[in-house]
Amino acid sequence: MKIIITSIFVQDQDKALEFYTKTLGFVKKHDVPSGAYRWITLVSPDEEGSIELLLEPNEHPAAKEYQEKLFADGIPVTMFGVTDIDKEYERLVEKGVKFTMKPTKMGEITIAVFDDTCGNLIQIIQQ
Fold first, then answer.
1. What is the value of pTM for the model shown?
2. For the chain, what percent of residues have pLDDT higher than 90?
3. Is 73 exposed, middle or buried (0-12, 13-18, 19+ CB in 10 A)?
């Protein structure tokens, strides 16, 4: 068994697609109509055959509440790995991304947290 897709709840699929591709640099793999919404998955540009990130609508009340409570408590919903966190931090700040935590060394790792503009906090990590 292996992980092939992981999902993140978003308030607006179009806005999320724009942010995750144009700002963060992910690549759209699937964008398929699925009822009132779409099955939108993204992959890392360097690993297009790797794990996909599903931009899942938060329309279910439980999903919306889960997303809102994590955000209010400052808890990131997922973590993305980066090679050079300071360089990535500067790149994203230049693109207007708002960080709630600047790069912070914690033992052997450095982390930072930003707002994805779609209802989530995302953590980046350099190991």
1. 0.94
2. 96
3. exposed
